[in-house]
Amino acid sequence: MLNREHHIEGFVSISDSGRSGARKVLLTHPSGATCEIYTKGASVASWTLPNGGEVLFTPGLSYNFPHWDGFDLFAKKKGSDETKDDSFTMNFDILDTGIRELWNPEDNTYTANPYVTIYTTDDDDSRKKWNDNAFQVTLTFTLEFDALNISHSVENKNTINNENNDVLEIETTVKEKLDFEYASGYRGHVRVADLTAVPPRAYYLGLDDCVYFDMIDKINGEKVDPQVKFTKDLDEYEEKCFTLTEKTERVYANVKRDSTMLEIGTGSSIVIEDYDRFAIGYDYPDEETALKQTGNWHDRAVFTYWKSKENKNDESYRWFSGLGFGNIAKLVKLKAGQTQTHTARLVVRDATLSESIIRERDAKRSYEAVEREFSKREGYNMEGAELPTDFQ
Predict the structure, then answer these.
(1) Which of 6, 78, 242, 269 has the most CB atoms around its CB within 10 Å?
(2) Which of 76, 74, 90 is nearest to 122 (CA)?
(3) What three-state secondary structure class fits 106?
């Protein structure tokens, strides 16, 4: 019944054929690009380009799937200052499906881009964890030829009702107790070239000049409380571009707009742009209004569990780099009845920037090595009388 209601021939199909019988939505672009979205956790299990190349995927042994994929929401308990991270996998329902058209100036045609909107509301689990906070989370995924747009909104539905369930007018001091404060984010596995290859070919860029938080102890590889660090304290070139070489879980706060890039090692990169291409014209009348109304996800996360001690035969860590984005480091506060929208666009570009940075780094290090060797030369102590006076 659900599939018939939201099915769009050639564009959107819904089935319970996911892992362990999970419900999934399959978006198909006219170009041949596809995207599989699980309603449990709002996770993107697979996103492939028209040429069959996979951008996002879920590793084979799927360590704790779908916890490490998809959407996360953390909320402060209502009427409390407690901000303990206490997330859980949310189950979403399908709200709407459809097609959004985008003008293509190259051939003067419109391209049909399928989308699905899913939503979830507070339930027994969330109310128990977050002191009866009432909210609604809505996510829209729109698939393009070479991009995936994600629009996410949170609505604060906290109210005070009488015995007839009528909403009561309340004083300002009481309203403050109905505030909904949250952090949210999205994370997925990006398919990359072998991370253990020498030299490495998968690099993160655009995560410089900001504060970051390390959640993994470098010595024992165990998770610890966030350690605040500054990228400016890193090696100059490690700040500009880096690859994963060990277990990592790190959050970068308030990165530069539209700068985050992950080179996948094939001559292409996935770039996070801080807007939804379809927000203008569909959700908002113009770009200025869209920018005012959308609180973009400016924090970034990188992660890998590297070689798992629990699953020693699992080699999937070699083929992905974890990438996340959201408002992770700072809570968003919503008054009762308010809604906040966050948008992002993942787009694949035929571009790499690490090569020039690495060439510059290697040239500088070679020069510094020569300088060190030069400084080791044996010195001569000579009196002035010993110096030659005639060079003819």
Answers:
(1) 269
(2) 90
(3) coil
139-159: buried (b, 16+ CB within 10 Å) or exposed (e) per residue?
bbbbbbbbbbbbbbbbbbbbe
Q: How far is CA 281 from the centre of its chain?
A: 25
| 65/67 Cα distance (integer angstroms) | 5
* 346 alpha-carbon distance from chain centroid: 9
Residue 154: helix, strand or coil by DSSP?
strand
Tokens for 109?
A: 């045609």
φ/ψ (deg, to 5) at 269: -140, 155
- The DSSP code sequence of 202-254 is -EEES--SSEEEEEE-TTT--EEEEEEEEGGGS-HHHHHEE---S-EEEEEES
Phi/psi at 290 (5° precision): -60, -45
The pair of structure tokens assigned to 229 is 């660090």
269 touches 351 (CB < 8 A): yes
Listed by start position, the domains of the chain span: 2-375
Q: Report, in this order, helix, strand and coil percent for the chain, each rounded to 5.
A: 20, 40, 40
Facing residues of 161 across strands? 167
Tokens 């001690």 belong to residue? 309
Hey, which CATH number is domain 2-375, 2.70.98.10, 2.30.29.30, 3.30.70.20, 3.10.20.310?
2.70.98.10
- Residue 195 gets which letter from DSSP? T
Tokens for 88, please give them: 């859980």
Could you list the beta-strand ranges (E) of 39-126.
Answer: 43-48, 54-57, 70-75, 93-104, 109-121
Tens digit of pLDDT for each residue in 248-259? 999 999 998 777
Is pTM beyond 0.70? Reply is yes
**Cα distances (Å, whole numbers) of residue 27 to 9, 18, 65, 115, 289:** 10, 14, 21, 7, 29
Q: Which of 81, 67, 75 is nearest to 129 (CA)?
A: 75
* Residues whose CB falls within 8 Å of the CB of residue 141, separated by 6 or more in sequence, listed in order: 25, 27, 35, 37, 44, 115, 116, 148, 149, 150
pLDDT tens-digit profile of 165-186?
A: 555 565 554 566 789 999 999 9
Helices (H), 243-353: 287-293
User: What is the dihedral angle through the alpha carbons of 325, 328, 330, 331, rounded to the nearest 10 degrees?
Assistant: 110
